[in-house]
Structures are given as structure tokens and as C-alpha cells.
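We were asked to recover a plausible sequence for a given structure. The inputs and outputs are reproduced exactly as logged, with field labels preserved.

PROBLEM: sequence recovery
POSITIONS: 351
GIVEN STRUCTURE:
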């Protein structure tokens, strides 16, 4: 489906559909990221997908906090709001609740979302607002020049941890699933076709969508994901989640993931005794998030790294419930009066 905007044709007042392209979503601002940054790839894929979503640019809002990823709204030819550190989910909540017809996107990073913004992120997710959250995870603070972030690996040496990180890292997908996100997915900045699919599916979802994107910071944390994303190894070290299909991976499609009797996941070789029938069948529509959570804990080198949609379920959205509650209150109590409200209860006159 292509996006259309209303335009007059020949001055006769007839509306003529105009097909938008990626160029229509490119702003006049100079893109100011470090050369080679993974953010360029993410920006390009989002700009490619937007014309296919059937949403007018004037009905689209990108909201960000603080960080390298937070420059994103400047580069999209839509409405945008560059907010403050960690507060993008709160700003997006206000926008969506005030005008539910808008398509609202939150662009954030692992530091912005999971450190100072952790509380705002969790509550925006649990409310199930119909917003789309794209979390760029490069496992480092890039804008402030290389300090460790909430997702940095244990033992990692950075400018702020010269002897190694002693914090255990947060897992963004596990956080989102624990907060009961109704749509959870993961992609990689260099997996361009896959990333486009995840962005589009997030937008099509009614409710909160959370997409973690592994993004390379080539200045302060270069090659962070190469061990499982490089072309030569990705087939053997990543696994694509497909609804209704068994968890099979490997260049020869000869390996898989099964559930052991002790409820732990195990990587197995497919042979005469272990077949696809023994493997876990992915169910992104499961009403609970137990299996999705287990998959989110799969990490290299013990497991292949899952990419794709972990969860996609339906639940009433916050803004729909809010509108219903307001309508119910008006039906019961009447439309109300601002003047009456201001002068109700105990009042004082200061002379």
C-alpha cells in the first residue's frame, strides 16, 4: 500500500492521489552522524518503509530523547519532537493520548531508554499505547564519547570502566516482555530487508510495539555484533523467528532448538534420531510471554541469536480505554463545566 496525500488537480477541486517516495521523507537537514555509523542504515530503511504505510506525513510524529539516535526527528520530513533525556516515552504518551489519530514513533538508544528513561519506558509499554518504539542498541554511550551503558557486556573496558564493567547488562527484549509489550521484535542495522519488515510490522500492530535494533557504533564500540552478524557466520549464529515454524538454523538448516524436560532450551543437531518434530515451534501469538522471554535470553555463544518477531498479540490500547472512560463519564455525569469545577469544593478569597 502506498501513501497518498490530498492535492488539487488542475485547480478544479478534485483530489488527486500523489504517491510518496523515500525522498518525500528526507528532510533538508544535514545528517550529522559519524561516517560509517549504523544509524545511517536505520534511517534509510525507515524512510523507505514510511511511504508504504499509507499514513500522511502531517499525521506522523517522531519523538526522541538524548543521544546519537535522538537526532533522528531532524532527518525525517514529518513532525518531530526532540525531548529531554529518557523522557521520549512520556512525551509520546501525551501526544498519542491527546490525538490518537497520529502515528507516533519513539526513537531511543540503550542509554537513553534503559538508564534515566527506564521508568518512563516501562510504563509506556505496560499501558499499551499505540506507539512504536525503536531502540538502537550499540551497547555504549556514543554521544558522550564511550562510557559503558546499561547493555554493555560484563567485563567490558570503556573510558568509564578501565578495569572492566562490573554491572550485569540489561536485556532490552526481556524488559519489554516483562512489561507485557504486545509486540516485541529484534533486527540488525545491516540486515536491511529484515529491518524494513520489522519496522512495517511494528507499524501495522495495534498497540505498543517495541523493536530492538542492534546498531554498530564504529567509533566507540566497533564490531560489537560481528561475531554473529557477519555474512560468513550469521546463518550459523543467528536464528530467524517465523510464526508456526520450528526453530531451525544453520547454513545447511541442520541445527535447531528444543525444549528439554527440565524446561531449558537446548541446541541440537538434526539427524535420524532428532528431527524437526522434536523442536520448538515458534508461536508469536501465544497469550502469555513465557516462551518469548526464554527466546530473549538466548545469547551468543551458547545459543544462536534470535531475530524477528518474538510476540504479537492484541489487547485494548490505552487511548481507546481513555476515550471510552471519558465518554462513559460524560454520559453519566453530563459534559461538565470548567467554571463550576474551578469554584467547587473549598475556596478562599485572598484580599
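RECOVERED SEQUENCE:
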Amino acid at each position: 500500500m502506498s501513501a497518498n496525500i490530498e492535492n488539487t488537480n488542475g485547480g478544479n477541486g478534485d483530489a488527486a492521489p500523489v504517491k510518496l517516495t523515500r525522498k518525500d521523507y528526507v528532510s533538508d537537514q544535514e545528517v550529522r552522524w559519524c561516517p560509517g555509523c549504523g544509524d545511517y542504515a536505520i534511517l534509510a530503511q525507515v524512510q523507505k518503509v514510511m511511504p508504504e504505510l499509507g499514513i500522511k506525513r502531517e499525521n506522523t510524529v517522531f519523538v526522541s530523547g538524548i543521544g546519537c539516535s535522538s537526532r533522528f526527528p531532524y532527518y525525517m520530513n514529518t513532525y518531530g519532537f526532540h525531548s529531554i533525556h529518557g523522557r521520549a516515552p512520556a512525551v509520546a504518551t501525551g501526544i498519542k493520548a491527546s490525538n490518537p489519530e497520529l502515528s507516533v514513533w519513539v526513537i531511543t538508544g540503550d542509554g537513553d531508554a534503559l538508564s534515566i528513561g527506564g521508568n518512563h519506558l516501562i510504563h509506556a509499554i505496560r499501558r499499551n499505547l499505540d506507539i512504536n518504539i525503536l531502540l538502537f542498541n550499540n551497547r555504549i554511550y556514543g554521544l558522550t564519547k564511550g562510557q559503558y551503558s546499561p547493555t554493555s557486556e560484563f567485563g567490558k573496558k570503556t573510558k568509564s570502566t578501565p578495569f572492566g564493567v562490573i554491572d550485569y547488562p540489561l536485556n532490552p527484549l526481556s524488559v519489554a516482555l516483562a512489561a507485557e509489550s504486545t509486540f516485541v521484535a529484534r533486527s540488525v542495522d545491516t540486515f536491511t530487508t529484515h529491518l524494513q519488515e520489522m519496522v512495517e510490522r511494528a507499524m501495522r500492530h495495534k498497540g505498543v510495539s517495541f523493536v530492538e535494533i542492534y546498531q554498530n557504533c564504529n567509533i566507540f564500540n566497533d564490531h560489537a555484533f560481528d561475531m554473529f552478524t557477519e555474512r560468513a557466520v550469521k546463518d550459523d549464529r543467528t536464528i530467524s523467528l517465523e510464526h508456526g515454524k520450528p526453530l531451525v538454523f544453520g547454513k545447511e538448516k541442520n541445527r535447531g532448538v528444543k525444549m528439554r524436560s527440565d524446561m531449558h532450551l537446548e541446541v541440537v543437531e538434526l539427524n535420524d534420531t532428532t528431527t524437526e518434530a522434536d523442536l520448538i515451534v515458534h508461536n508469536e501469538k501465544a497469550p502469555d510471554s513465557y516462551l518469548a522471554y526464554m527466546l530473549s535470553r538466548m545469547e551468543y555463544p551458547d545459543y544462536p541469536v534470535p531475530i524477528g518477531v518474538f510476540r504479537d498479540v492484541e489487547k485494548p490500547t490505552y487511548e481507546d480505554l481513555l476515550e471510552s472512560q471519558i465518554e462513559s463519564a460524560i454520559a453519566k455525569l453530563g459534559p461538565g463545566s470548567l467554571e463550576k469545577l474551578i469554584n467547587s469544593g473549598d475556596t478562599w478569597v485572598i484580599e
